[in-house]
Amino acid sequence: MELNARILLVEDNEANMDMLKRRLLKKGFEVITAVDGEEGIKKVEAESPDLVLMDVGLPGMDGWETTELIRATDSIKHIPVIALTAHAMAGDREKAKEVGCDDYETKPIDFPRLLEKMNSLLSRGPEK
Ligand code: MN
User: How many domains does the chain have?
Assistant: First the structure.
């Protein structure tokens, strides 16, 4: 497990944001936050996080579109993205793949499982 990895959490729901942020901090991650897709993109570019946790249901540009934009931007397209989907919607797996997410997790978040997915991507190392 990569300690002190820097995680960008993009989440518009304050309660979800606080809970997940607290749990990540406890595990030793550095956490940066954004409340919508536009702020998310800006912070990916400015902060170069090691991994992005992307809520799919965001006001304005949703998490799928935001991920597509990350994948279309040369300087940041290598950064792993895990989508956080609100429901176990049929088709989320395909959608996540289609827009270029590395993985996805459904809410309510199973934190140990999310950590496994995060650590698997973080230990993969940078591939530009
Ligand atoms: Mn949301």
Answer: 1
